[in-house]
Amino acid sequence: MIGRIAVGDGAAISVQSMTKTDTRDAAATAAQIRRLERAGCEVIRLAVPDIRAAEALRGLRAGTKTALVADIHFDHKLALAALEAGVDGLRLNPGNIGSRKKIEEVVKAARERSVPIRIGVNSGSLEKDLLEKYGRAVPEALAESALRHVRILEDLDFHLIKISLKASDIPRTLEAYRLVAGRVDYPFHAGITEAGLLLPGTVKSSAGLALLLNEGLADTIRVSLTAPPENEVDVGWTILRSMGIRRRGVELVSCPSCGRCEVDLPGIASAVAERLSGLPHDLTIAVMGCMVNGPGEAKEADIGLACGRGAGVVFKKGRIHRRLPEKNLVDGFVEDVLELAGQSPERGPGI
After folding, report:
1. Helix (H, G, I), strand (E, B) or coil at 243
2. What residues does 122 pair with on adjacent strands?
3. From CA 172, how far away is CA 165, in angstroms rounded?
4. Quick one: which of 43, 42, 78, 74 has its CA closest to 57?
5. Contact between 137 and 167 (Cβ < 8 Å)
6. Alpha-carbon dihedral angle through residues 324, 329, 330, 331, given to the nearest 10 degrees
7. Structure letter (DSSP) for residue 345
8. Cβ-Cβ contacts under 8 Å for 21 (sequence gap 6 or more)
């Protein structure tokens, strides 16, 4: 359990992200936590580089019920302070926080609070001896690093362990998880680290996580993007929904547009998506641009709009609901979606 979120052993796969503010700036960090909550983030990790950041955790903890994980490196006192502040999880590598006595202190405090520890191995911060042994951060090196840290915790009879093995490319990441999966039975936190800017990072993360999820090698996920963390959450949920694993919020089905389209479909679809962002209901809506595939897709959705020359037809639960003139396509369709979701058009979705 990370706070109220179950991880592993058949629990729903959860979506994580990480704040990108300076944790010491409590107001900015709290505001970002609220935005992540609205996006549906279930576990939020915060960097804790010094004692001021650790001290800020107490107020941040009091301001949210969302599970919080402290990201700790090198200084075991920061881990102890984070636990005192009430965090729900730690991300650290036992081997880089000092002597065995220091590790024992952290493990004792985590055990007393039933706080799990994630062993987080990244290709960019692998131990020097492993880099010398393997020449580079190959999957075998990532796996050996993780198992080395697992043994430290197991020797202390601590088993609330979660593991991640992340590289910035898919083949190394996938193989590292496969290697460790054959050796331990702890839950996996999965993702492709430093995946990149919004578009390429989304593509890389989607491809990598789809493979990991399909092989049962992910119990909780984080999409790592050079973009606002809310985007990471949106992409994470979209991946889970696309694979039929979990559903949350609105899924928009829209056609790519072609020479048959006689309306501004990109503009219409974008406006509908923006107006309905934050709608908390699990709905599939379709916005289609022509009468070839449009009616069929619109009928299959909970509610759909099939556009033609100068007008569009709204389908609700597979039946024609009404026709709308082109000038009223967005307003009219959004109104129908909100009505189906039981939301007031005046208030808007999720407000």
Report:
1. coil
2. 166
3. 9
4. 78
5. yes
6. -40
7. T
8. 28, 29, 31, 32
Strand arrangement of the beta sheet that strand 189-190 belongs to: 161-166, 117-122, 89-92, 67-71, 43-47, 14-18, 220-222, 189-190
Report d(CA 39, CA 21) in Å as an integer: 17
CA distances (Å), origin 347, targets 98, 110, 273, 343: 54, 44, 16, 8
Contacts for 10 with CB less than 8 Å, ≥ 6 apart = none
Tokens read off for 134 = 């393997």
Q: Residue 46, Cβ neighbours under 10 Å: how many? A: 25
Q: Is 344 helix (H, G, I), strand (E, B) or coil?
A: coil
Q: pLDDT tens for residues 320-351? A: 999 999 999 999 999 999 999 888 665 444 33
Note the pTM of the prediction, 2 decimals.
0.89
Residue with tokens 């193989």: 175
Triad 21, 249, 336: Cα angle to 5°? 125
